[in-house]
Amino acid sequence: MLDQRISEEITYLPNSELQKMRARYIDAYDEPPQANVACSNDQLAALKHVIDTGREPYADLAVWGPHGLRLLKKSSMSGLNIMRDGTFQQVEMFGPPDVEQWCANYDVLSTGCIMLGAVRRPNLASYRRWICKLAACYGPIVWHLLYQTDVRCRQELMQRVFQELLAAHTAAIMARTHTDFDPTSPWDAVWKRVLEMKDWWTDEFERPAGMIKNKVLELGSVLGGDVQISTNHQRAPAQHQLHQPPINNKGGGKGVRQNINKNKNKNNNNHRSDRKGEYKKGGSKGSNGDASNSTAASQLWCKICKATDHDHPQCPQFIPNYGSSKGRKGKGGKK
Length: 335
What we know:
Layout: H1 15-29, H2 41-52, H3 68-78, E1 80-82, E2 88-90, H4 99-115, H5 121-138, H6 143-174, H7 187-196, H8 198-213, H9 239-242, H10 254-278
Antiparallel strand pairs: 1-2
């Protein structure tokens, strides 16, 4: 897959044509393409199709990358959503989440451009270094903006530059002056020209990226929504593992488990002692022996009088003058 926007029929390349393309790459690098940068036959055929029809050699790096056959299968499955009526709907796949993945995908595009003779190696390498330089200077916080700039450059700016160079070439021919532009193979000159347009890169990326870094602008305010990137989600640790003590590898975690059990037993013993004090006969005394300070003991229901104030005469905790200024003494509430 070359571009998510288009769906056209392409003609597969014969082996003789593929051998010529392979020879071009060997002339540029003195070796055949490695597996991580090689183009599949489908990718080469699609890229040649758009160039032959006069379009820029644009590849959507969301669906273009190393190991084209694997990526084609993955994108064809993950790019579909099942609807309520049982049909499938095509959904957009997002671009590379960082500059490292972008470089891996762009290297495959460079291989295709070299094998097709569309763009020479120096200009392809200069564009790669330029994107990596901007990513290193401004950091990953503005990578979404940088990828948006890269897409707009290869998709929109290059087509506009091509038309400008073609117009200048036509004017030079009519004026019978010299021109270096080759209309039959224009994209090498276009690739070189876009890197010389520093004002465009400043307006599209460098100025807004600097304002984002200085917290003058928000990233969302400069994103047009036409380009999306994927995100790498990491599973958060379980709640019971956040404060779990480290396991002793030598003892197989036995010592840690023993300490945890001791702490649990200690907490349980403290809890039992507190409840035992609440059930103590005669209630709990305050500083002056006042029964009004025994609120902790009166928070539980009595099994005999079924009340919290022990107001039944048969209750062993019954106090005739409960609430008086004098405190309780002894068993059974005797004064």
